[in-house]
Amino acid sequence: MVPTTWGQSKFLTLTPVFLFLLFSGYAWIEQAVTGVIVTLVAYQVLLLGIGWWASRRNTDSADFYLGGRKLGGLVAALSASASSSSAWSLLGVSGAAFAWGLPAIWLVPATVLGFCINWFLIAPRLSTQSRENGALTLTEFIAGPPGDPARRTMMRLGAVVILFCFTFYIAAQFQAAGKTFASVLGVEQTTAIVIGAAVVLAYVWLGGFWAASVTDSVQGLLMALSALLLPLLALSEVGGPAALSASLLTDGLSWTGQASLPAAIGFVFGLFGIGLGYPGQPHVVNRFMAIRDEKAIRNGRRVAIAWALVIYTGMVTLGWCGRVLVSDLGDGEQLLFVMATLLLPALAAGVMVSAILSAIMSTADSQLLVAASSVSHDLRDGRASASETLSQARWVVLAIGALAIVLAVFFPDDIFGRVLFAWQALAAAFGPLLVVTLWRGQVDPAWRVAALVCGFVLTVALSWTVESPGDWVERLVPLALALLLSVIGSRRACNSR
After folding, report:
1. Cβ(67)–Cβ(15) under 8 Å?
2. Candidates 3.30.420.40, 1.10.3720.10, 1.20.1730.10, 3.40.50.1240; correct CATH number of 6-496?
3. Which residue has the higher pLDDT, 359 or 149?
4. How confident is the model at residue 44, as a pLDDT?
């Protein structure tokens, strides 16, 4: 039995409110963004209710990790989408479109491709097969059945990869939260990151898959609303689509931004490598393991793809409009805040900023929960008791949170680049193995380990040593090699049976 944590959740849910009031002081009044306080307090009350409701549904480890495999299509679609996107989609994509101009258009089909791969090719089979073999995490699913000679090694390696990648991933979320605080409160960036991280870590203690999924769904709706409203207002301010197109074309950029054909092809292929990485994201595909049935998958598929089109088209449009309306912006990833202040009244701008902050928090929440499960479940091969699981999970959350703060403060990087580094490392480590396991069956133990290690290590090595247009070498070569090793391993396994 997983114990409920109502008292703890109540205290820790209210903690961010006090942190906000403590650190902001009179800045709230001075900046006249009352909407931020109102929205955040309302959101925390909502989370309190969700946390209480979710705590009563956690009766075993299947509930804690996968919500008892009873997730509906709408919640699965919105929570998976919000978990995969958040700070990267709102701040990173709009910032990239602001910096790149026309070439940013390729981000839309690249990311939508990833959504299609996951919902058409991965979700139906993963839902069925994970239910049949009882796997609770992505690592456990690809590790092989109990008694498999490589199972323990795979689960430990998978846990290490997840912890490493999520530290960078969560650091990007903390940076995004810090930028939000810095924009709203006018505080120094380092202080803002620490405040934002403290709020995020407090939220995580609500715990449990149900709470994370439902709150992520709320954030997914808020993100979609922001991605509809602000770009439409910006487009109107520019003078409409025709005026925007004329302004962008005067920049002298092509649709690829590259002078030569090989460089242009590399740039486009590199961006499409982002979409190919979606099957390897543990915090996304675990929603497919939790989804209720085939009907829920069909319903979720429509919602998720529509959501992706709204978000990424909206953020690219916002970035393009920013190139026309905003000048002398040192950090392109601050564009959304600048545009909200420019185009919206104070109250509406405050509401939008707080919605963005909440979306960032929800993604970090999901990632920290998956990281915690990697230690408490995968490293122990599912042998820990419920109370041990919860205790270990909390310590893991704090440890990863501390490392992510150090990265965000002392080794800052742009959100777009940091998220994509972690994204591609996870993609190459887990994606090919998952695809081959779902469609061809188990992979030979030795080749299974080789595929995971080669995909991960090669991605890390290339990210630090090779520069290519669109980073296509980093995003495609490790994926291709891991896929080749997985296919060979699958054939070896078939021949041995």
Report:
1. no
2. 1.20.1730.10
3. 149
4. 54
